[in-house]
Amino acid sequence: MAQTKTRKKISKDNLTAIAFLLPSFLLILVFVYGFIGWTGYVSLSNYNTIVPDFSFAGLKNYIYLFNDFRFQADLRNTLFFTIFFIGLVIILGLGLSILIDQKLKGESFFRNVFLFPMALSFVVTGVVWQWLLNPSTGFNQFLSIFGIQPKWYTDTNILAGFEWGSIEFGLPVAILAVVIAAVWQMTGFSLAMYLAGLRGIPDELKEAARIDGASEFQVYRKVVLPMLLPITVSVIIIMAHISLKIFDLVYAMTGSGANFVTDVPGVYMFETTFRGNYYANGAAIAIIMLLLVAIFIVPYLWSNRKGGQ
């Protein structure tokens, strides 16, 4: 007997859901993925003048960038900024959340104080910290009493530097000033994440560890911190996404800096595209930034998808 295949009818609820989602899907398809595709296309062209030229250039623009002194300096600065930024945000956020979790008096006050910087834009943060870390004003007015005069973001020294390509590879001292400003603004985010995680750990688990003879340090090391690992991964991914595409904070606070010691790919892309009219080079920088972010985001999304399945 021939088996008849029955088609599933789309219910009215499904049609309603599709109707609501379709406009957003089309907008994302055009204005996100469409523009990413267009940027990739421009990056492979000769469009480096005011007059459009979409003739195929292959990887010429990418080769130029990786041999360019400024772009090599940008990659160096981004690497050290990302390492110090993520590390300090995790350490300070975790430490402060543990302190607040001790049922302190005025807990809501301290929580709001640490969360307040997140309400500010990076532009405002950059302007404020530019004044605070100005070598002739700000903190140096106080530090001069002790004979200390840091140059902050005007310092051109490279610590532990060695020759790498066209640049001196090492820690640019000036980038630490930008790290301070970024950490000040984003620590509240990691604090909120960790505090929510701490409040979600049952007290019975910690009490059981204490009954078994574990010290308070061992309770946190053996019980609490392992349970906070998913939150730590989330904080790393989100902070890495912010640090790799940072633009407004650096642009408002320091600019590219002397000898490009505080320059980042976002600032270079802006100046190359909208000031120099090198559209293909600017598009290539944008694609490289996208790939750097994807290195962190894609494995995280893939692991979440596998975990969900």
UniProtKB/TrEMBL annotation:
Coarse class of the protein's main subcellular location: membrane
UniProt key word Phosphoprotein: no
A Pfam family of this chain: BPD_transp_1
TM stretches of this protein: 15-36, 79-100, 112-132, 169-196, 223-244, 278-302
CDD domains in the cross-refs: TM_PBP2
The keyword Transmembrane is annotated on this UniProt entry: yes
GO CC annotations, alphabetized: plasma membrane
UniProt cross-references to Gene3D superfamilies, sorted A to Z: MetI-like
Keywords tagged on the record: Cell membrane, Membrane, Transmembrane, Transmembrane helix, Transport
Subcellular location: Cell membrane
Bilayer disposition of the protein: Multi-pass membrane protein
Domain ABC transmembrane type-1 residues, every copy: 75-302
One of the GO BP terms on file: transmembrane transport
Family statement drawn from the similarity comment of this UniProt entry: Belongs to the binding-protein-dependent transport system permease family.
Protein's name in the database: ABC transporter permease subunit
The organism of origin for this protein: Ornithinibacillus caprae
